[in-house]
Structure to design on (592 residues):
């Protein structure tokens, strides 16, 4: 039985390694790093449209980019996106192994074929690494595998002359990988045959052809030469060519030949294989871990939950681990506001000042999005539209965003700008995952009664400003006050107003704005407001006798205990953080 087991193990161990690798990649992207997939999907707008197709294929690497964008749209579902990315990364490993076998590499060195995939996995953890790079690499390796099947030198010469320029136009500058691999392979063959003239002719001929491709394309492709040489759609920032791209390219060129040069071990073969697996697995783990930015993943996950209106899930996530970045705190506070808990629970969680409520506009394509969501649900529709539009126009690769298109269609429907809304909706009708939503939204065009009856759009129409004025981001409290006064049913605007001045530690204005809440329909005074009120009372009174607000006895006891510890303990902050770290008093006196 043991002999049979080892026989099966010898036959299937490579398949087992590949399957284990696939499952590891799948679990990583499906669970640990899934928000990065949603992040990629929201910043493109793939259209089933002839003009969109021609726009892509008209540039070097455009076909690969088109295929990649087609696949990226399936990142709309994290599990599907993880499946696609895992398949592509494993496909790279299998193709590089085929090239290694073409060079007669011993089977015991199969684990080395995972190295390029590990490096690629590391690179794809960068949220600006585009799937077009992965697709382009696969196309190049497919061409190299086809080349290995050609035996006649004239067949190989014709293949190079035809495929190298075609590969450049289809996959872009990664054609240099194919060029380098062919040169090394043919040089080694010529050296074995002592055909040095043939080696020199082949080297210069293939190199000139490979370099000529981007040089000739520069005559009609309106891109700088360094981008034509380095790749157009591989990275979101056009001016950057990451070193990891270069390292992966070099590894794909030289690994098949280096592995083939290793002698086949005659003793301790099993130990040799196990040692490779252990080294690559352990090294890969630390290499991938080093590339992961879990703070970004957390922020992206909060943003994804906001986009999907999963307010309860956001609060549960914050309860497990309070977010620390302004980006995530904005999402957390919005969820508290949407569930009516902002006044009661705001200071139970980390607060970093007003930037965690309504951040100022920044000229990038990510931070304005949660801010635009907050403005949208508050009823500041024009500000939400401005933030969304500016975020989309700030995309460094000049793409459009499906998420932004959807929100811009909504804001224009709410504002009655139907021609503008129709422009966005017509584009969304040409997508896969937004088509049904766009078709339904088209029925609201020029239909005032239907929009007014819509659960969300109709409500936001009632909440938004009734008169035009110049918006000032330096007077947010005034903007929120005007918003609330235009409709007292907008309780969230009132809570953002009080939360804004409380986080500024401006209790004078808090006392000025607090009476406005008499029309907000509260059945109790929210806890954080009680804490602010009782604090102000204690600054001028020695007892709670005559306090004009309905302050709970528990809060009265707690503020007394807080004051006692604050005035009597030398290391008061430590004690107070343990007992009262979730109160407004602690935020007021200790938070920076």
């Amino acid at each position: 039985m043991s002999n049979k087991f080892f026989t099966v193990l010898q036959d299937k161990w490579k398949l087992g390694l590949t399957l284990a690798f696939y499952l590891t990649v799948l679990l990583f992207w499906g669970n640990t790093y899934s928000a990065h997939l949603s992040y990629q999907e929201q910043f493109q707008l793939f259209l089933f449209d002839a003009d969109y197709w021609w726009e892509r294929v008209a540039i070097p690497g455009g076909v690969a980019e088109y295929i990649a964008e087609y696949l990226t749209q399936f990142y709309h579902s994290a599990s599907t996106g993880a499946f696609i990315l895992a398949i592509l990364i494993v496909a790279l490993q299998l193709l590089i192994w085929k090239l290694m076998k073409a060079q007669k590499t011993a089977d015991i060195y199969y684990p080395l074929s995972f190295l390029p995939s590990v490096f690629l996995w590391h690179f794809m953890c960068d949220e600006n690494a585009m799937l077009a790079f992965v697709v382009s690499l696969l196309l190049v390796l497919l061409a190299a595998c086809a080349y290995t099947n050609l035996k006649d030198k004239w067949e190989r010469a014709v293949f190079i002359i035809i495929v190298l320029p075609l590969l450049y136009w289809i996959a872009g500058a990664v054609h240099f990988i194919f060029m380098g691999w062919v040169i090394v392979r043919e040089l080694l063959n010529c050296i074995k045959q002592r055909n040095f003239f043939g080696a020199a002719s082949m080297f210069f001929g293939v190199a000139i052809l490979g370099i000529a491709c981007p040089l000739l394309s520069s005559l009609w492709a309106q891109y700088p030469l360094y981008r034509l040489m380095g790749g157009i759609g591989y990275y979101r920032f056009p001016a950057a060519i990451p070193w990891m791209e270069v390292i992966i390219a070099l590894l794909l060129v030289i690994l098949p030949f280096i592995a083939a040069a290793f002698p086949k071990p005659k003793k301790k073969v099993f130990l040799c294989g196990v040692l490779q697996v252990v080294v690559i697995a352990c090294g890969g783990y630390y290499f991938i871990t080093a590339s992961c930015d879990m703070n970004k993943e957390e922020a992206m996950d909060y943003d994804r939950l906001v986009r999907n209106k999963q307010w309860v899930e956001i609060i549960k996530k914050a309860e497990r681990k309070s977010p620390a970045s302004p980006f995530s705190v904005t999402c957390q506070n919005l969820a508290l506001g949407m569930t009516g808990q902002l006044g009661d629970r705001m200071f139970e969680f980390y607060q970093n000042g007003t930037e965690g409520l309504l951040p100022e506009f920044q000229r990038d394509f990510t931070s304005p999005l949660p801010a635009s969501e907050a403005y949208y649900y508050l009823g500041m529709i024009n500000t939400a539209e401005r933030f969304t539009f500016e975020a989309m126009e700030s995309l460094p690769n000049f793409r459009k965003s499906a998420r932004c298109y959807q929100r811009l269609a909504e804001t224009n429907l709410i504002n009655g700008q139907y021609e503008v809304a129709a422009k966005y909706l017509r584009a969304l009708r040409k997508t896969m995952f937004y088509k049904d939503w766009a078709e339904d939204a088209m029925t609201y065009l020029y239909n005032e009664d239907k929009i007014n009856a819509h659960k969300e759009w109709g409500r936001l129409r009632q909440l938004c400003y009734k008169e035009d004025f110049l918006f000032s981001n330096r007077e947010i409290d005034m903007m929120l006050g005007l918003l609330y006064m235009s409709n007292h049913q907008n309780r969230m605007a009132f809570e953002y107003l009080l939360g804004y001045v409380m986080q500024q530690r401006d209790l004078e204005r808090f006392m000025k704005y607090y009476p406005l809440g008499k029309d907000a329909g509260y059945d109790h005074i929210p806890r954080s407001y009680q804490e602010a009120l009782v604090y102000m009372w204690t600054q001028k009174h020695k007892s709670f006798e005559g306090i004009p607000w309905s302050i709970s006895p528990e809060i009265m006891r707690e503020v007394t205990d807080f004051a006692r510890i604050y005035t009597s303990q030398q290391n008061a902050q430590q004690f107070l953080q343990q007992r009262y770290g979730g109160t407004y008093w602690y935020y007021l006196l200790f938070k920076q």
